[in-house]
Sequence to fold (321 residues):
Amino acid sequence: GQGSLVPVPMERTVVLITGCSSGIGLGLAVRLASDASRRFKVYATMRNLAQKERLLECVRGCHASTLEILQLDVTDPLSLAAAAQRVQERRVDVLVCNAGVGLMGPLEICSYQAMKTVFDVNVFGTIGTIQTFLPGMKRRKAGKIIISSSVGALQGVPFNAVYCASKFAVEGLCESLAVVLQQFNVHVTLIECGPLNTSFLANLQSTDAEGSALQVLDSQTRALYSQYLQHCQSLFRDAAQDTEEVLQVFLEAIHSPCPPLRCFPTQFFMPLTRLKLASPDGSEYIRAMHKFVFAATEAPSNQADTSESNPAVREQGTGLE
Ligand SMILES: NC(=O)c1ccc[n+]([C@@H]2O[C@H](COP(=O)([O-])OP(=O)(O)OC[C@H]3O[C@@H](n4cnc5c(N)ncnc54)[C@H](OP(=O)(O)O)[C@@H]3O)[C@@H](O)[C@H]2O)c1
Fold:
């Protein structure tokens, strides 16, 4: 159905989303472009237009008037400027900064190039995207900036040091902006996603952790990293959320007249998150996170049963409830 009987509303909400080739970005673009009221005009952007088939398949060609796909590499200022030029309405009401990449592994073997990519995309890419559309929002005294953030933006996660550093940076950016932007009726919202069933893990920047690089590490770090990988597998298997569930939280933020600075699609990590405030010196958090990640797989003799789900994840959540 073309939905052609539904008239296109006079004043539509213009939404621009980065990183729409897969995962959250793709899902959100599809949901908004398919909205029965046709009240959204979605600019779904991706750095490589050769990847647009998946998105087109999901919307099945019925959304000529609600969806436009644009090239946008958030690390390329020219690409950002060109995409902004192609927004016909000359305004973006809702900007979704979603493009992001992960990096996992012991810090000693994270290559400079991989770390630089993570910061280029997650930090400078997000800053550049906001810089591009912020002046218009301030001028109109209206707008929403929604960020695909992470539980790892609020608390350190072992073997995700560089990824967390980049996501922490975006928290500082947005919290700082929010203080000023409330004067302009511009709302900044960080969606603090937990583990999600997207291509995110498959798309991690490589640390060469399977290759020879790991061999230069001390055996204790290697053992801890292998425990972490088991924990991570169990966590994604037992606690990962469906993208649809998380998209609901993005939609609520888009629909709300005054969305908060932070939204939490999952309460799973809340006990750990709270420890940071309850114990500002950090010791409680470090102890609890260590227990959460390493306790269930501590002894090497236990490693046989870790092919099963991590019992700490399955039965106790973070173990702090
Ligand atoms: N999945 C999780 O467990 C999880 C948890 C917490 C937070 N998040 C955050 O959620 C966001 C979306 O991730 P996802 O789970 O949907 O994973 P995903 O499927 O890997 O999506 C990431 C998207 O970012 C795009 N991207 C990477 N570099 C880019 C660049 N330079 N310019 C423009 N786009 C770029 C990717 O495009 P290409 O296809 O071209 O690489 C892809 O479309 C990320 O910011 C991530 O940090 C995810």
The chain is about 45% helix and 10% strand. The radius of gyration is 21 Å.
